Amino acid sequence: MSEYELSRLIDTAFRVYEFILIARVLMSWVPDMERTSLGQFLYKITEPYLKYFRRFIPPLGPIDISPIVAIFTLILIQAGLETVLRSIL
């Protein structure tokens, strides 16, 4: 696997997970959407990551800002990982 292919694979994986996190947030605004099979699937793959941030960032009333911080952190991790990989490869 070339350096370019590895970089694209990592970029794609991070972007897909970012999209999944955004979909989870949007689904929380639709009543009963979390009870669907899609909602349950998104919950299962995003909750472990979001739970980590909720330990440190409690909801502000009815607004949960932990997904915003989680997505921002994911973007920073992606950028850092790509920088490290480029310096190694």
Structure description:
The model has no long low-confidence stretch (mean pLDDT 91). The chain has one domain (3-88). It contains 3 helices and no strands. 74% of the residues lie in helices and 0% in strands. It has 89 residues and is mainly alpha-helical. It has helices spanning 3-27, 37-54, 66-88. Pfam families: CCB3_YggT. InterPro entries: CCB3/YggT (IPR003425). Belongs to the YggT family. This is YggT family protein.
List keywords for this structure.
mainly alpha; YggT family protein; CCB3/YggT; 89 residues
How far is the N terminus from the C terminus? 11 Å
Q: What is the rounded Rg?
A: 15 Å
Q: Please state the structural category.
A: mainly alpha
Oligomeric assembly: single chain
**Count of helices?**
3
Helical amount: over 70%
Summarize the main sheet: none
Query: What is the count of structural domains?
Result: 1
Poorly predicted regions:
none
What value does the average pLDDT take? 91
Q: What portion of residues belong to β-strands?
A: under 5%
Q: How many individual β-strands?
A: 0
Order of helices and strands: HHH
Identify the overall geometry: elongated
